[in-house]
Design brief:
Blueprint lengths: L6 E4 L6 E2 L1 H14 L6 H6 L5 H11 L8 H16 L3 E2 L3 H9 L3 E5 L4 H11 L6 E3 L12 H10 L6 E5 L2 H9 L3 E5 L13 E3 L2 H11 L8
Parallel strand pairs: 1-4, 1-6, 4-5, 6-7, 7-8
Antiparallel strand pairs: 2-3
Helix pairs in contact: 1-4, 5-9
Length: about 220
């Protein structure tokens, strides 16, 4: 595949930025206010899904059905809580690594978070790096549906066999594989065994960074 690789699509939270704890904290509060008790771990399990998916899953677990009018209201509330409490930081080595990759490949972000948050994080930590941003509001179906990754590859103008996905969440890995793409994953917030559907799994970001740097070399021979 190394000779065919033309594009790389990155998940944002947990891959590029250490931000998921603040997403989880915000969702926990939002659901608590709706009388639904969830933990941060519950949110980590559905990481990658867009707000519609997260709301549907958590309401279903609680034996409730969300009213159609509630989705936008809960998203707005969650966004406000995230922005208020967010102390996210960039993962060590990723910015420099992406600078190298950008010279050789088309690169994109495909995140389940809403556009306001994704744009804010990318402008803060990875300005002028990505060719394409796909957010939870840009798709009808969030991860594990393949739509986010298919859309990102289409916008990059690369085929599924020319595109690699970098993930850290089970639903995201499933979305990449459902899209027919090569997928590497890093165990940021869940155990590595929960990412076993990926083609390659790294236990931490140092391993991931080393691997990505190898792809930026003369022939990308590590793929």
């Amino acid at each position: 595949m190394s000779n065919m690789l033309k594009g790389i699509v990155f998940d944002s939270d947990g891959v590029l930025v250490d931000s998921m704890p603040y997403h989880a904290q915000a969702w926990v509060q939002v659901f608590r206010d709706e009388g639904i008790d969830v933990s941060k771990e519950d949110i980590y399990e559905v990481e990658g899904s867009n707000h519609v998916g997260v709301i549907n899953i958590m309401f279903r677990k609680a034996g409730k059905k969300p009213d159609e009018a509630i989705y936008d209201a809960l998203l707005t509330k969650k966004r406000e809580l995230f922005m208020k409490n967010n102390q996210a930081k960039r993962f060590d080595g990723m910015y420099e690594c992406l600078g190298l990759l950008k010279d050789k490949y088309k690169i994109a972000v495909a995140s389940g978070a809403d556009r306001t948050i994704v744009k804010d994080l990318m402008e803060k930590f990875y300005p002028h790096v990505f060719d394409v941003l796909v957010t939870g509001e840009d798709v009808e179906n969030g991860k594990p549906d393949p739509e986010p990754y298919i859309k990102a590859a289409g916008m990059l103008e690369v085929g599924k066999d020319e595109c690699m996905v970098v993930e850290n969440a089970p639903l995201g890995v499933k979305a990449a594989k459902n899209a027919g793409m090569y997928c590497v994953a890093v165990a940021t917030y869940v155990p590595a065994e929960e990412l076993s559907e990926a083609d390659r799994v790294f236990s931490d970001h140092s391993g991931l960074v080393d691997y990505l740097r190898s792809l930026a070399g003369p022939d990308g021979s590590e793929l």
